[in-house]
Design brief:
6-stranded mixed β-sheet, 5 helices
Length: 217
Amino acid sequence: MPHLHKALTLAANFKQYSTRMKYILTLLFHIIVTTTSYGQIITYEDFKSVIPFVQKEDFKGVFEKTSKLLNTTQNDSSDFRGIVTYMNIFSAAGMVTLDQMTHADFFKNANKYIGQRLVMSAHPCIDSSSQGFNSLKFVTVDGQMQGMTISNNNKGTNILCFEYFKYKDVINPSELIGKNLRSGGTLEKVEVNPNNSKIWISRLHIVNSFAREMTPR
């Protein structure tokens, strides 16, 4: 009988140990998966994989592809992630124009990226007196130099984003006019057309901005 009691005690202890080990292994697996997912960065190859959708102006395809990349790289602060984040917001605005997303859902999605880095498409810099879509110009607002871009779809029928930049460094527009510039910074605020019109979809306000000349890759 003592031997039986000892055997039952060992079996019970082993069962408790086995249960604890399963819990520890499950927790460890979760930590590894989470760390692997959030620890990844968006690479140039990832960025290139989105381009075919952009070239076809397949807004839904761009949105789905970029959403997947962004969901697995939340700790990435690289320029590529900034570019992909902008692509995500821009494509969502495009989806609104095609009735593939509501204004409210666009706002909810874009708001997720407030406080995060955005890197916009490169645009030619034009004089402040000129009018032009998909170009960057510098204007003075309340005594402060700001950048502004109006980004539309390929057909020119809808403005997807008004983009406003407050720069962290002094900008001299005369040195930049005529050059191809890429701007970016931290997304501070998102506005959506209050009338739910499709003439224009959104306004993006960017702080701690930069403007740098594009060089061939």
